[in-house]
Specification:
The protein has 380 residues and is mainly alpha-helical. Helix content is 48%, strand content 2%. It has 16 helices and four strands. Strand 3 and strand 4 (350-351) form a beta hairpin. The termini are far apart.
């Protein structure tokens, strides 16, 4: 009986991964065997004491992947160039595909074999973090049955992020731009707000009802040349359940990334906003920051916008939101008063100032001391 179950499992693995999560319906392409071996490899690390027929099978998938990689390397396979495959979307370096499929164990194995940790795709100019964010939801929701249950995608994305950011400065990694000028933050913002195609269209083609893949409200960020004093009116419709599900994934990805940026910019429990500003104010080829992109669908991106302003309460970021979002729709973080943060002065000395929560929070008995502290801070 056990042998029958094992044979069924093996047949499932072979048939399930004969194609990829990025294949279109009725795909007839014979994919590169390295891609199929990568897809079938397990992330689980098995201890010797817990080996049984099932865990042995999982270990075998990793061994087979390693053998396949070594065989291709012996035959002259280019480690860090786009892999040759009949499906254009799969034409990435192998370590990119490991990230796209959330195979974090494979990432570490490839690095051990001499693969570059963050190679640039010649086709798109993307780093692995770009491509993982661009395709991660599509692949994860198909590869992992419990992808959205208990927010399992947080664990998967965090493991992949750690693999790619290991031995690399987080802010520097996130500052890299692809051929569209997009940083990984831009990619996450675009995928977050992109409205899914209508159900009447073919399920294998993701299109948009409007050219820029968003339904913009009438804001200054999307209406170039409009006077600043024009009253903004929100025309956004409610997101579909499909859109909400995908947006939740990217919101949590951004929350994790922003937490890592905050850690990288924090010294002695104080955030140096001067390290963060250049990253957050980077514009793509369309002249947009990732915050401006999120503001186009501010209702669905509200959580991510609030998280950013809470972690980095700078007047520049708050003004961007106020200029891009109609006032009735402003996130609560825009209503806490003028944001004050810690920023590096021109003399290189860190000036201690306070966040909106702290500015609006002291009790009446503390107000005198609080104002004295703020005044002294501005005199530094």
């Amino acid at each position: 009986m056990r042998n029958i179950s094992e044979k069924k499992l093996l047949f499932f693995i072979i048939s399930e991964f004969f194609h990829t999560p990025l294949c279109y319906v009725n795909c007839s392409i014979d994919h590169h065997h390295l891609i199929l071996a990568l897809l079938s490899s397990s992330n689980r690390l098995i201890s010797r004491g817990s080996l049984n027929s099932f865990t042995q099978l999982l270990e075998t998938t990793k061994v087979n992947f390693l053998k396949c990689v070594k065989k291709n390397l012996d035959e002259g396979f280019a480690k860090d160039l786009d892999i040759s495959d009949g499906l254009v979307v799969l034409k990435y370096p192998l370590i990119h595909l490991a990230g796209i499929f959330f195979k974090y164990t494979a990432i570490d194995l490839l690095v051990h074999l001499g693969f570059e940790r963050n190679p640039c795709s010649p086709r798109t100019g993307e780093l692995p973090l770009h491509s993982t964010l661009r395709h991660g939801f599509s692949t994860g929701s198909k590869l992992y049955k419990s992808f959205a249950m208990n927010r399992n995608y947080e664990k998967l994305f965090s493991r992949v992020f750690k693999s790619f950011s290991s031995e690399t400065d987080v802010i520097e990694l996130l500052s890299q731009q692809d051929k569209n000028g997009d940083t990984p933050l831009h990619v996450a913002a675009k995928r977050m707000i992109e409205r899914p195609a209508p159900l009447s269209k073919p399920s294998n083609i993701v299109t948009s009802e409007i050219p820029d893949s968003t339904q913009e409200c009438e804001s200054n960020s999307s209406r170039r040349g409009v006077p600043v004093d024009v009253t903004l009116v929100c025309t956004l419709g409610p997101p579909s359940e499909q859109h909400r599900c995908r947006a939740d994934f990217y919101i949590h990805c951004l929350e994790y990334i922003l937490r890592k940026v905050q850690e990288a910019a924090t010294n002695a429990r104080k955030v140096n906003i001067g390290l963060v500003k250049p990253l957050f104010l980077m514009k793509n080829n369309e002249g947009e920051t990732f915050l401006q992109i999120m503001c186009k669908e501010h209702h669905i991106a509200n959580t991510a916008i609030n998280d950013l302003l809470n972690r980095f309460p700078d007047v520049t970021f708050v003004d961007c939101v106020k200029q891009s979002v109609p006032e009735p729709c402003w996130p609560y973080t825009c209503l806490l008063g003028e944001p004050l943060v810690e920023e590096e002065s021109t003399s290189g000395v860190l000036v201690t100032v306070y966040s909106p929560m702290e500015v609006s929070g002291p009790s009446d008995t503390q107000s005198g001391d609080f104002l004295s502290i703020v005044i002294l801070s501005f005199r530094v």
